[in-house]
Amino acid sequence: MKINQYPVLYVHGFRGGDYTTENLVKSALKYNNKKEYLKATINTLGQITYEGKWTKDKYPIVQVVFKNKIIGSNLMARWLSNLVFDLKKKYSFETYHAVGHSLGAVALVLAEMREKKLTYLPKIKNLVLIAGPFNGIIGLGDLPNVNQLGQNGRPAFMSPTYMRMYINRKNISNEMRVLNIYGNLKNYSNSDKYISVTSAKSINYILSPKVMEFVDYPVSGKNAEHSLLHDDSNVLRLINKFVY
Question: Which CATH architecture fits 8-243?
């Protein structure tokens, strides 16, 4: 009897690679008592190559790697949709889970909005967002302590990418569960060094009224730094429990 499978995609961000999600994948393998996973590498033309193994258990793990480390979130989202469709043709699943760090988190939200419109694509069920620059990056559309969130969570200023997500919020699945993790070094910037708390929390205003469940998880201290956040032991435990 064939079991229903829910693959779990791990997606890095801008200038990232397999090393970005290495500890996330290792932690998930240990949590699920397994050793094998599939790595999907997308080259600069959007072509996909695979190495490793698609496992036959309930949660096949897929590590996604973009060879072009500086692509934007829109192209990243389109290539993610292509990857999910290719995996569906090979392995026949309808729902998947995803974990995205930094720009990968933004791309996953954009991809989910595409999936609602393109009905042949599988849908995200459990989505983990780590340090997502949803409303600008410090020095690129955002400055420390300038943008503010209203009592209802609406940001005072919206970046072009954020505005696009806000306009297309009707395409967000109401069956999705979301865990939003962000860091605060507790210095003057109220950021994880690169992403302000305001930018990371701005996604709440778009997603929380639409989805089945939305959970915020702030991290403070030295492990809250942008490139360390995805390796924090408490964060890893929380992600595994949420996803699996």
Answer: 3-Layer(aba) Sandwich (3.40)
